[in-house]
Write a structure and sequence with these properties.
The chain has 10 helices and 7 strands. By secondary structure, it is an alpha/beta fold. Helix 1 crosses helix 10. It binds BIS(adenosine)-5'-pentaphosphate.
Length: about 220
Amino acid sequence: SLKEPLKVMISGAPASGKGTQCELIVNKFGLVHISTGDLLRAEVSSGTEIGNKAKEFMNAGRLVPDEVVTAMVTARLSCDDAKEKGWLLDGYPRSFNQAQSLQKLKIIPDVYFVLDVPDETLIDRCVGRRLDPVTGKIYHIKSFPPETEEIKARLITRPDDTEEKVKSRLEIYKKNADSISATYSNIMKKIDGNHSKDVVFEVIDSILSQVQKDKETKIKLG
Ligand code: AP5
């Protein structure tokens, strides 16, 4: 069948569940997941030039300078796998300038998701988050504890997940949110993220399935 790959953006405050939903979206739709947070953390842990530039900003809970992140993201988006399978952009754009950079390059998504979660829930989710450095899987000490003792023993906490830094990340998010949504207002889908991850995914899944169907119809008609 004719297929035009999906192009999806997901946004939301720190710990609103972007990474968690991306895991589920990738499993079902096979998109290439491009998370700027994950890409930057990988650069930091391998001690690259980008990583060295990004490290102090990230650890302080501040945004890494636009030019560093934009170069990294546009390089990743232009790889063959992203063009063939479609992409799921997570954590970018995070400022008005970043949104403008994509517009200039005519990189425009089919749908822009915004996960909406109350502040007090966000703090608890961040402080309880743990990552598995081996599989990249995201856990939570209360909501999603690790499956085995072996996994539990190797889990790590992100240096920017203290209550104080979460508050500063949240403030920066709120300052930028409106100017970014303005760019994508015609394709924006606000999702209530304050439910179990499966319930949140059901909503996202039904929207994406519809968007995919619409794209196929458009190709057939075109
Ligand atoms: P990034 O990694 O993107 O961090 P973030 O936006 O703060 O988002 P998080 O990763 O904290 O949360 P998430 O929404 O993915 O939630 P998760 O699924 O893990 O960025 C980190 C840093 O990199 C930035 O601060 C900045 O310095 C830099 N950076 C990145 N992009 C940049 C850019 N474009 N420009 C400049 N700098 C940039 O879930 C959180 C927790 O909640 C987990 O424990 C999870 O298990 C739990 N949880 C998830 N869903 C649910 C649910 N439905 N119910 C209960 N618990 C849940």
